[in-house]
Amino acid sequence: MNKVEGYQELHAVxxxxxxxxxxxxxxxxxxxxxxxxxxxxxxxxGINHIETGVAETGIVALIQGQGGDGPTIGLxxxxxxxxxxxxxxxxxxxxxxxxxxxxGHDGHTAMLLGAAKYLxxxxxxxxxxxxxxxxxxxxxxxxxxxxxxxxxxxxxxxQVFGMxxxxxxxxxxxxxxxxxxxxxxxxxxxxxxxxxxxxxxxNEAVDPVVIAGQIIVGTQTIVSRKLNPLDSLVVSFTKxxxxxxxxxxxxxxxxxxTVRTFSSDLRDFAxxxxxxxxxxxxxxxxxxxxxxxxxxxxxTFNHTKETHLAIEAAAGVVGSASxxxxxxxxxxxxxxxxxxxxxxxxxxxIGNGATAALHNPAYDFNDEALQYGIGYWVSLVERVxxx
Length: 387
Known about the structure:
Elements: H1 8-23, H2 32-44, E1 49-54, E2 58-64, E3 72-78, H3 105-122, E4 128-134, H4 142-148, H5 151-154, E5 157-166, E6 174-175, E7 179-182, E8 184-193, E9 197-198, H6 208-218, H7 221-226, E10 233-241, E11 248-249, E12 252-261, H8 264-284, E13 288-295, E14 300-302, H9 304-318, E15 323-324, H10 336-342, E16 345-351, H11 370-384
Parallel strand pairs: 3-4, 3-5, 5-16, 6-15
Antiparallel strand pairs: 1-2, 2-4, 6-16, 7-14, 8-12, 8-13, 9-11, 10-12
Protein backbone atom coordinates (compact mmCIF):
# COMPACT_ATOMS: atom_id res chain seq x y z
CA MET A 1 0.00 0.00 0.00
CA ASN A 2 1.49 3.37 -1.12
CA LYS A 3 0.52 5.29 2.02
CA VAL A 4 0.36 9.04 1.54
CA GLU A 5 2.81 9.62 4.41
CA GLY A 6 5.59 8.42 2.09
CA TYR A 7 5.20 11.52 -0.08
CA GLN A 8 5.43 14.25 2.57
CA GLU A 9 8.95 15.25 1.53
CA LEU A 10 7.79 15.58 -2.05
CA HIS A 11 4.80 17.55 -0.85
CA ALA A 12 6.99 20.42 0.30
CA VAL A 13 8.90 20.81 -2.96
CA UNK A 14 5.77 20.22 -5.06
CA UNK A 15 4.13 23.09 -3.17
CA UNK A 16 7.00 25.37 -4.19
CA UNK A 17 6.63 24.27 -7.81
CA UNK A 18 2.88 24.75 -7.75
CA UNK A 19 3.09 28.25 -6.34
CA UNK A 20 5.73 29.28 -8.89
CA UNK A 21 3.46 28.07 -11.68
CA UNK A 22 0.50 29.84 -10.11
CA UNK A 23 2.38 33.15 -10.05
CA UNK A 24 3.31 32.73 -13.71
CA UNK A 25 0.20 31.68 -15.65
CA UNK A 26 0.29 31.34 -19.43
CA UNK A 27 -2.44 30.64 -21.99
CA UNK A 28 -3.16 27.97 -24.60
CA UNK A 29 -0.02 27.02 -26.58
CA UNK A 30 2.04 30.00 -25.36
CA UNK A 31 3.46 28.15 -22.34
CA UNK A 32 7.07 29.18 -22.79
CA UNK A 33 8.03 29.82 -19.15
CA UNK A 34 5.88 26.91 -17.95
CA UNK A 35 7.37 24.43 -20.40
CA UNK A 36 10.92 25.55 -19.60
CA UNK A 37 10.24 25.13 -15.88
CA UNK A 38 8.92 21.58 -16.43
CA UNK A 39 11.82 20.62 -18.71
CA UNK A 40 14.40 21.84 -16.18
CA UNK A 41 12.76 19.89 -13.36
CA UNK A 42 12.53 16.70 -15.43
CA UNK A 43 16.20 16.94 -16.43
CA UNK A 44 17.20 17.48 -12.80
CA UNK A 45 15.51 14.17 -11.92
CA GLY A 46 17.88 12.34 -14.27
CA ILE A 47 15.29 11.75 -16.99
CA ASN A 48 17.21 11.58 -20.26
CA HIS A 49 14.43 11.16 -22.81
CA ILE A 50 12.53 14.47 -22.92
CA GLU A 51 10.74 15.43 -26.13
CA THR A 52 9.82 19.10 -26.37
CA GLY A 53 7.82 21.12 -28.86
CA VAL A 54 4.95 18.63 -29.11
CA ALA A 55 1.88 20.67 -30.07
CA GLU A 56 4.18 23.72 -29.81
CA THR A 57 4.89 23.73 -26.05
CA GLY A 58 3.85 20.24 -24.99
CA ILE A 59 6.33 17.78 -23.47
CA VAL A 60 6.61 13.99 -23.36
CA ALA A 61 9.21 12.49 -21.04
CA LEU A 62 9.96 8.78 -20.79
CA ILE A 63 11.03 6.94 -17.61
CA GLN A 64 12.11 3.33 -18.06
CA GLY A 65 11.71 0.93 -15.18
CA GLN A 66 14.30 -1.47 -13.79
CA GLY A 67 11.98 -4.47 -13.92
CA GLY A 68 12.67 -5.38 -17.54
CA ASP A 69 10.62 -5.08 -20.69
CA GLY A 70 6.95 -4.27 -20.47
CA PRO A 71 4.23 -1.97 -21.76
CA THR A 72 4.19 1.81 -21.67
CA ILE A 73 1.48 3.78 -19.89
CA GLY A 74 0.83 7.49 -20.33
CA LEU A 75 0.14 9.93 -17.47
CA UNK A 76 -1.24 13.29 -18.56
CA UNK A 77 -1.25 16.71 -16.87
CA UNK A 78 -2.55 19.92 -18.47
CA UNK A 79 -0.52 23.11 -18.02
CA UNK A 80 -2.46 26.13 -19.35
CA UNK A 81 -4.23 28.90 -17.44
CA UNK A 82 -7.34 31.03 -18.02
CA UNK A 83 -7.98 34.65 -19.07
CA UNK A 84 -9.46 35.61 -15.68
CA UNK A 85 -8.33 38.37 -13.30
CA UNK A 86 -7.51 36.59 -10.04
CA UNK A 87 -9.20 37.52 -6.74
CA UNK A 88 -7.87 34.82 -4.41
CA UNK A 89 -5.77 37.26 -2.34
CA UNK A 90 -3.13 34.57 -1.78
CA UNK A 91 0.56 35.47 -1.37
CA UNK A 92 1.30 33.49 -4.53
CA UNK A 93 -1.42 35.22 -6.57
CA UNK A 94 -0.91 35.62 -10.33
CA UNK A 95 1.69 38.23 -11.28
CA UNK A 96 0.17 38.61 -14.75
CA UNK A 97 -2.96 40.80 -14.69
CA UNK A 98 -5.90 39.20 -16.45
CA UNK A 99 -4.48 35.66 -16.33
CA UNK A 100 -4.77 33.04 -13.60
CA UNK A 101 -4.66 29.33 -12.93
CA UNK A 102 -8.40 29.12 -12.32
CA UNK A 103 -8.77 25.41 -13.04
CA GLY A 104 -5.88 23.92 -11.07
CA HIS A 105 -3.60 23.00 -13.96
CA ASP A 106 -0.71 24.35 -11.89
CA GLY A 107 -1.54 21.66 -9.32
CA HIS A 108 -1.93 18.98 -11.97
CA THR A 109 1.52 19.82 -13.37
CA ALA A 110 3.11 19.88 -9.90
CA MET A 111 1.61 16.49 -8.99
CA LEU A 112 2.93 14.85 -12.14
CA LEU A 113 6.34 16.44 -11.58
CA GLY A 114 6.35 15.04 -8.03
CA ALA A 115 5.51 11.58 -9.32
CA ALA A 116 8.21 11.92 -11.99
CA LYS A 117 10.83 12.73 -9.34
CA TYR A 118 9.81 9.71 -7.26
CA LEU A 119 9.56 7.28 -10.19
CA UNK A 120 12.85 8.41 -11.72
CA UNK A 121 14.60 7.74 -8.39
CA UNK A 122 12.99 4.35 -7.64
CA UNK A 123 12.09 2.87 -11.06
CA UNK A 124 10.28 0.06 -9.23
CA UNK A 125 8.35 -1.09 -12.27
CA UNK A 126 8.81 -2.83 -15.59
CA UNK A 127 8.22 -1.22 -18.97
CA UNK A 128 7.99 2.56 -19.26
CA UNK A 129 6.04 5.59 -18.14
CA UNK A 130 5.34 8.40 -20.62
CA UNK A 131 4.79 11.69 -18.80
CA UNK A 132 2.53 13.87 -20.96
CA UNK A 133 2.52 17.60 -20.16
CA UNK A 134 -0.19 19.08 -22.36
CA UNK A 135 -0.86 22.65 -23.53
CA UNK A 136 -4.18 24.19 -24.55
CA UNK A 137 -6.71 22.15 -22.61
CA UNK A 138 -8.90 25.18 -22.02
CA UNK A 139 -9.46 25.79 -25.72
CA UNK A 140 -10.12 22.09 -26.27
CA UNK A 141 -7.42 21.46 -28.86
CA UNK A 142 -4.20 20.50 -27.09
CA UNK A 143 -4.90 16.82 -26.46
CA UNK A 144 -6.23 16.23 -29.95
CA UNK A 145 -3.15 17.87 -31.43
CA UNK A 146 -0.73 15.81 -29.33
CA UNK A 147 -2.53 12.66 -30.44
CA UNK A 148 -2.54 13.84 -34.06
CA UNK A 149 1.21 14.49 -33.82
CA UNK A 150 1.70 10.81 -33.01
CA UNK A 151 2.67 10.56 -29.34
CA UNK A 152 0.61 7.40 -28.75
CA UNK A 153 2.31 5.51 -31.58
CA UNK A 154 5.75 7.07 -31.14
CA UNK A 155 5.94 5.95 -27.52
CA UNK A 156 3.90 2.76 -27.95
CA UNK A 157 1.52 3.92 -25.22
CA UNK A 158 -0.86 1.09 -24.30
CA GLN A 159 -3.01 2.89 -21.70
CA VAL A 160 -3.43 6.53 -20.73
CA PHE A 161 -4.60 8.10 -17.48
CA GLY A 162 -5.60 11.61 -16.40
CA MET A 163 -6.48 13.36 -13.13
CA UNK A 164 -8.43 16.55 -12.34
CA UNK A 165 -9.05 18.34 -9.06
CA UNK A 166 -12.60 18.77 -7.74
CA UNK A 167 -13.64 21.60 -5.38
CA UNK A 168 -16.20 20.35 -2.87
CA UNK A 169 -14.64 16.89 -2.61
CA UNK A 170 -12.71 16.28 0.60
CA UNK A 171 -8.93 16.39 0.58
CA UNK A 172 -7.67 12.81 0.45
CA UNK A 173 -10.67 11.53 -1.52
CA UNK A 174 -11.06 10.38 -5.12
CA UNK A 175 -14.03 9.96 -7.45
CA UNK A 176 -14.42 8.07 -10.71
CA UNK A 177 -16.94 6.06 -12.71
CA UNK A 178 -16.92 3.53 -15.50
CA UNK A 179 -18.15 4.69 -18.93
CA UNK A 180 -19.00 8.34 -19.63
CA UNK A 181 -17.63 10.59 -16.88
CA UNK A 182 -17.81 13.93 -18.71
CA UNK A 183 -20.05 15.15 -21.51
CA UNK A 184 -19.27 16.04 -25.07
CA UNK A 185 -19.14 19.72 -25.96
CA UNK A 186 -20.62 21.32 -29.07
CA UNK A 187 -20.94 25.03 -29.80
CA UNK A 188 -23.48 26.68 -32.06
CA UNK A 189 -24.21 30.07 -33.57
CA UNK A 190 -27.65 30.92 -34.94
CA UNK A 191 -28.27 33.94 -37.15
CA UNK A 192 -31.94 34.87 -36.93
CA UNK A 193 -32.90 36.78 -40.05
CA UNK A 194 -35.82 39.22 -40.17
CA UNK A 195 -36.57 42.62 -41.64
CA UNK A 196 -35.37 45.71 -39.85
CA UNK A 197 -37.34 48.84 -39.15
CA UNK A 198 -38.34 51.50 -36.65
CA UNK A 199 -39.27 50.37 -33.15
CA UNK A 200 -42.40 52.51 -33.39
CA UNK A 201 -43.66 50.54 -36.41
CA UNK A 202 -43.10 46.84 -35.62
CA ASN A 203 -45.92 45.92 -38.02
CA GLU A 204 -43.73 47.02 -40.92
CA ALA A 205 -40.82 44.85 -39.81
CA VAL A 206 -40.11 41.18 -39.15
CA ASP A 207 -38.62 41.42 -35.69
CA PRO A 208 -35.70 38.98 -35.26
CA VAL A 209 -35.46 39.84 -31.55
CA VAL A 210 -38.91 38.41 -30.93
CA ILE A 211 -38.08 35.40 -33.11
CA ALA A 212 -34.83 34.86 -31.18
CA GLY A 213 -36.76 34.89 -27.92
CA GLN A 214 -39.15 32.26 -29.25
CA ILE A 215 -36.21 30.13 -30.39
CA ILE A 216 -34.42 30.37 -27.04
CA VAL A 217 -37.53 29.19 -25.23
CA GLY A 218 -38.77 26.82 -27.93
CA THR A 219 -35.56 24.84 -28.31
CA GLN A 220 -35.82 23.76 -24.66
CA THR A 221 -38.69 21.51 -25.78
CA ILE A 222 -36.06 19.44 -27.59
CA VAL A 223 -35.03 18.23 -24.15
CA SER A 224 -38.37 18.32 -22.36
CA ARG A 225 -40.62 16.89 -25.08
CA LYS A 226 -38.55 15.14 -27.76
CA LEU A 227 -35.95 13.30 -25.67
CA ASN A 228 -36.26 10.19 -23.56
CA PRO A 229 -36.38 11.50 -19.96
CA LEU A 230 -33.70 8.97 -18.99
CA ASP A 231 -31.20 10.51 -21.43
CA SER A 232 -29.07 13.58 -20.68
CA LEU A 233 -28.89 16.61 -22.93
CA VAL A 234 -28.25 20.25 -21.99
CA VAL A 235 -28.86 23.10 -24.44
CA SER A 236 -27.64 26.45 -23.10
CA PHE A 237 -27.92 29.82 -24.85
CA THR A 238 -25.10 32.06 -23.64
CA LYS A 239 -24.75 34.75 -26.35
CA UNK A 240 -27.16 37.30 -27.82
CA UNK A 241 -26.26 40.22 -30.06
CA UNK A 242 -28.89 42.54 -31.50
CA UNK A 243 -29.21 46.26 -32.36
CA UNK A 244 -27.25 48.77 -30.30
CA UNK A 245 -29.96 51.47 -30.33
CA UNK A 246 -33.26 51.65 -28.44
CA UNK A 247 -35.38 52.60 -31.44
CA UNK A 248 -34.13 50.14 -34.05
CA UNK A 249 -35.51 46.74 -34.96
CA UNK A 250 -32.46 45.04 -36.51
CA UNK A 251 -32.30 42.99 -39.68
CA UNK A 252 -30.81 40.06 -37.83
CA UNK A 253 -29.93 38.79 -34.35
CA UNK A 254 -27.04 36.51 -33.43
CA UNK A 255 -27.51 33.95 -30.65
CA UNK A 256 -25.25 31.12 -29.58
CA UNK A 257 -24.42 28.63 -26.89
CA THR A 258 -23.47 25.03 -26.15
CA VAL A 259 -24.89 21.52 -26.30
CA ARG A 260 -23.68 18.80 -23.93
CA THR A 261 -24.54 15.11 -23.79
CA PHE A 262 -23.09 11.69 -22.95
CA SER A 263 -24.04 10.09 -26.30
CA SER A 264 -22.64 10.54 -29.80
CA ASP A 265 -26.07 9.77 -31.24
CA LEU A 266 -27.60 12.57 -29.18
CA ARG A 267 -25.16 15.02 -30.72
CA ASP A 268 -26.66 14.22 -34.13
CA PHE A 269 -30.16 14.41 -32.66
CA ALA A 270 -29.51 17.81 -31.06
CA UNK A 271 -28.09 19.36 -34.21
CA UNK A 272 -30.98 18.15 -36.38
CA UNK A 273 -33.65 19.16 -33.87
CA UNK A 274 -32.12 22.56 -33.23
CA UNK A 275 -32.15 23.47 -36.92
CA UNK A 276 -35.65 22.06 -37.43
CA UNK A 277 -37.11 23.84 -34.38
CA UNK A 278 -35.38 27.17 -34.96
CA UNK A 279 -36.21 27.26 -38.65
CA UNK A 280 -39.84 26.31 -38.02
CA UNK A 281 -40.29 29.07 -35.43
CA UNK A 282 -38.51 31.69 -37.55
CA UNK A 283 -40.51 30.95 -40.67
CA UNK A 284 -43.77 31.04 -38.71
CA UNK A 285 -42.97 34.71 -38.00
CA UNK A 286 -41.80 35.45 -41.53
CA UNK A 287 -38.07 35.13 -40.89
CA UNK A 288 -35.41 32.44 -41.28
CA UNK A 289 -32.21 31.15 -39.65
CA UNK A 290 -28.71 30.00 -40.47
CA UNK A 291 -27.10 27.49 -38.09
CA UNK A 292 -23.37 26.94 -37.58
CA UNK A 293 -23.03 23.85 -35.36
CA UNK A 294 -19.51 22.80 -34.35
CA UNK A 295 -18.43 19.53 -32.72
CA UNK A 296 -15.71 20.13 -30.14
CA UNK A 297 -14.71 17.67 -27.39
CA UNK A 298 -16.17 14.15 -27.55
CA UNK A 299 -17.55 12.31 -24.53
CA THR A 300 -14.85 11.56 -21.93
CA PHE A 301 -15.27 7.81 -21.67
CA ASN A 302 -13.55 5.75 -18.97
CA HIS A 303 -12.73 2.20 -20.00
CA THR A 304 -13.76 -0.57 -17.62
CA LYS A 305 -10.41 -2.27 -16.98
CA GLU A 306 -8.55 1.02 -16.56
CA THR A 307 -11.24 2.40 -14.26
CA HIS A 308 -10.80 -0.56 -11.94
CA LEU A 309 -7.02 -0.08 -12.02
CA ALA A 310 -7.49 3.58 -11.09
CA ILE A 311 -9.79 2.66 -8.19
CA GLU A 312 -7.27 0.13 -6.87
CA ALA A 313 -4.42 2.65 -7.16
CA ALA A 314 -6.34 5.38 -5.33
CA ALA A 315 -7.47 2.94 -2.62
CA GLY A 316 -3.83 1.95 -2.16
CA VAL A 317 -3.09 5.53 -1.12
CA VAL A 318 -6.16 6.58 0.88
CA GLY A 319 -8.10 3.36 1.54
CA SER A 320 -11.20 2.15 -0.28
CA ALA A 321 -13.58 4.16 1.93
CA SER A 322 -12.20 7.40 0.46
CA UNK A 323 -12.64 6.31 -3.17
CA UNK A 324 -16.04 6.74 -4.80
CA UNK A 325 -15.99 4.30 -7.69
CA UNK A 326 -19.51 5.20 -8.78
CA UNK A 327 -19.27 8.97 -8.99
CA UNK A 328 -22.09 10.58 -10.95
CA UNK A 329 -20.99 11.77 -14.41
CA UNK A 330 -20.65 15.51 -14.89
CA UNK A 331 -21.87 17.72 -17.74
CA UNK A 332 -18.54 19.52 -18.07
CA UNK A 333 -16.12 18.49 -20.82
CA UNK A 334 -12.42 17.66 -21.11
CA UNK A 335 -10.18 17.36 -24.15
CA UNK A 336 -8.51 14.36 -22.47
CA UNK A 337 -11.42 12.62 -24.22
CA UNK A 338 -9.30 12.58 -27.39
CA UNK A 339 -6.58 10.60 -25.65
CA UNK A 340 -9.20 8.15 -24.35
CA UNK A 341 -10.44 7.72 -27.92
CA UNK A 342 -6.88 6.89 -29.01
CA UNK A 343 -6.09 4.49 -26.16
CA UNK A 344 -7.96 2.80 -23.30
CA UNK A 345 -7.65 4.66 -20.03
CA UNK A 346 -9.44 6.59 -17.32
CA UNK A 347 -9.83 10.07 -15.82
CA UNK A 348 -10.09 10.33 -12.03
CA UNK A 349 -11.08 13.26 -9.78
CA ILE A 350 -9.08 14.23 -6.70
CA GLY A 351 -10.58 16.22 -3.84
CA ASN A 352 -9.63 19.89 -3.59
CA GLY A 353 -11.51 20.61 -0.38
CA ALA A 354 -13.90 23.49 0.34
CA THR A 355 -12.45 25.92 -2.21
CA ALA A 356 -14.08 28.26 -4.69
CA ALA A 357 -15.39 26.63 -7.86
CA LEU A 358 -13.29 26.05 -10.95
CA HIS A 359 -13.05 29.07 -13.29
CA ASN A 360 -13.96 31.38 -10.39
CA PRO A 361 -11.67 34.41 -9.75
CA ALA A 362 -11.36 33.33 -6.09
CA TYR A 363 -10.31 29.73 -6.91
CA ASP A 364 -6.94 28.34 -5.87
CA PHE A 365 -5.61 24.79 -6.05
CA ASN A 366 -5.33 23.33 -2.55
CA ASP A 367 -1.70 22.38 -1.88
CA GLU A 368 -2.81 19.79 0.67
CA ALA A 369 -4.01 17.69 -2.27
CA LEU A 370 -0.54 17.46 -3.83
CA GLN A 371 0.78 14.50 -1.84
CA TYR A 372 -2.40 12.51 -2.56
CA GLY A 373 -2.09 13.15 -6.28
CA ILE A 374 1.59 12.22 -6.31
CA GLY A 375 0.78 9.07 -4.36
CA TYR A 376 -1.98 8.14 -6.80
CA TRP A 377 0.32 8.40 -9.81
CA VAL A 378 3.04 6.31 -8.15
CA SER A 379 0.53 3.74 -6.92
CA LEU A 380 -0.99 3.46 -10.40
CA VAL A 381 2.37 2.96 -12.12
CA GLU A 382 3.60 0.37 -9.63
CA ARG A 383 0.36 -1.60 -9.94
CA VAL A 384 -0.11 -1.46 -13.71
CA UNK A 385 3.60 -2.06 -14.38
CA UNK A 386 4.29 -4.41 -11.48
CA UNK A 387 7.88 -5.61 -11.70
